[in-house]
Amino acid sequence: MNKGKREEKQLSGMRFEEVFEQNEKRIHYHIHRLGIRDPNQEFYSEGLYTMWLAYQKYNPNKGPLGTYFNYTIRNRFIDMLRKETREQERKAYVVEGEKQRMDGAAEEQEDAAGSEGTAYSQTVGLGVLLYYAGAAA
Q1: Which of 31, 89, 102, 122 stands 20 to 30 A from 71 (CA)?
Q2: d(CA 5, CA 61)
Q3: Contact of 66 with 86, CB cutoff 8 Å
Q4: Neighbour-count burial of 44, counting CB atoms closer than 10 A to its CB (0-12 exposed, 13-18 middle, 19+ buried)
Q5: Alpha helix (H) ranges present in 1-137?
Q6: Looking at residue 60, what DSSP letter applies?
Q7: Is 41 helix (H, G, I), strand (E, B) or coil?
Q8: Which one is predicted more confidently, 131 or 32?
Q9: What CA dihedral angle connects 8, 11, 13 and 16, to 10 degrees?
Q10: How far apart are the first and last CA of the chain?
């Protein structure tokens, strides 16, 4: 009897809870191996879900169950990391664009105010200087 047939025979009598108990460490292993910080257990719960999907789709003729779990969990974590990185880059791009837009609007307002704005700021600056000079005397 080949290895695939033995696993199929063993797997047919096992519930997912039993398979999970035997393979839960695989999730923790990949979280650690990929250097993932998971304080909210997002990756762990996604690994559990991925393990369940792999259990449902498993074909014993294609190889051992443990190898299939490792492959699917690791690849799912990598996909999640890529998605997270893309979202952070997108947010940074939006924030930078918004800063540039606001800077451009501020420059337009300064240009529109022209010399009046400049004279006002110089007067205020002179007033502040005189105030502090008087306080120091």
Answers
A1: 89
A2: 8
A3: no
A4: middle
A5: 3-12, 16-33, 42-57, 65-136
A6: G
A7: coil
A8: 32
A9: -150
A10: 101
Cα distance between residue 83 and residue 89, in whole Å: 10
Q: In angstroms, what CA-CA distances link 125 with 29, 31, 47, 135?
A: 62, 57, 61, 15
Given a contact cutoff of 8 angstroms between Cβ atoms, the answer to whether 63 and 42 are in contact is no
Name the residue with tokens 């952070």. 88
- Cβ proximity of 51 and 26 under 8 Å: yes
Contact 57, 101 (CB under 8 A): no
Q: Is 53 a residue whose pLDDT tops 70?
A: yes
pLDDT digits (tens, 9 = 90+) for 67-109: 999 999 999 999 999 999 999 888 888 888 877 777 777 677 7
Banded pLDDT at 1 (limits 50, 70, 90):
very low
